[in-house]
Amino acid sequence: MSLNPSGSSREPIFNLPTSIFLSVLVLVGIHALRLLLSEETDFQLLIDWAVIPARWSVEYGGVQSDEVLSALQQGSSEQAISPLHALAQYILAQNEGRPWTALSYAFLHGSWAHVIINSIWLAAFGTPVARRCGAGRFLLLCAAAAIGGAILYAFMNPLQILPMIGASAAVSGLMAAASWFIFAPVDWLPEGRPTQPHERPREPLLEMLRNRQVLVFLGFWFAANYIFAFVQPIGITDASIAWEAHIGGFLVGLVLFPLIDPIPARRGGLTP
Question: Domain Peptidase S54 rhomboid, which positions (predicted)?
Fold first, then answer.
């Protein structure tokens, strides 16, 4: 059956949902505006809006400032100790936990490469999720994954004083959400066309874990996180990779998506 008898209609090159387009525009726009700031103003912006685990640990976790300073002496070279001590003393002297940074850090990026890569992955995996769930649930999923990534990162690095930024945790949550349905079997709709990925019922958990495409996708994702976090190929990354935040965001997306998915799961198997 021909879906386009006249052959006159064409798909646009960039066919992004409005919520995805605006999200990418916000990330790119914020990074561009930061370039107009002085170094001092941009530094203060990072301190105020990035995730700094040691700040949370001192404010909410019962950790003493001296413990943070002692940890810096043990884990840093002599040349790095002095500036790190100064940074730690400056941050911890504010006596503020700044809980909103669990979300705000996702809007900040360390370089153009960082923001562009995250924007590409956001468009790739956010598009089917946004088309399936709508803008509201898409944004909810992004926010929850970002917060989950920040919490896991802080939990595993409680004395870290360096800022952590980037939308990678939110993107990881979208990847996990999309893995529920983008590799699901194709169905045929009454009008005679195959279902698009965002239209397919998500697979039950056991069936998803038996799907070779899902396993290859997840294996590649975890392997890439390992390589960039621990091997750190020269010339590919310009900063340390917060793999803990990626894992946290991914787990949140994996667990949360079935709860907000507007399409019922395919019958059979188990769902979380």
Answer: 97-257
